[in-house]
Amino acid sequence: MNSLSTILIVVGLFLVGGIISFAKQGFPKGVLVLLGIGSAMCLVAGIMRLEIWA
C-alpha cells in the first residue's frame, strides 16, 4: 500500500463523513450528489492503486 492510495482512501472517507454531516444539516441535494461523486471517485482510485490485482 503506497502513500497515494492511502491518501485517496482517507480523502474519500472524509468526504463520506461530509455527506452524512451535510445531510443532517439539510444542505441541498446537489451538494450531496457532488460530494458523493467525489467520494466515490477517490475511493475507487485509491482501491485501484492498491496493486493487489497483479
Order of helices and strands: HH
Sheet/helix structural class:
mainly alpha
Number of strands: 0
Strand content: under 5%
Q: Please tell me how large the radius of gyration is.
A: 13 Å
Query: Would you tell me the overall average pLDDT?
Result: 92
The total number of structural domains is 1
Helical coverage, percent range = over 70%
What does the main sheet amount to? none
Question: How is this fold's topology laid out?
Answer:
Layout: H1 3-25, H2 29-48
Helix pairs in contact: 1-2
Structural description of this entry:
This protein has one domain. It has helices spanning 3-25, 29-48. The protein has two helices and no strands. It has 54 residues and is mostly helical. The mean pLDDT is 92. The longest helix is centred in the N-terminal third of the chain and has 23 residues, at 3-25.
Can you give keywords for this protein?
2 helices; 54 residues; 0% strand; 80% helix; elongated; mainly alpha
Provide a compact summary of the structure.
This protein has 54 residues and is mostly helical. The chain has helices at 3-25, 29-48. The chain is built from 2 helices and no strands.
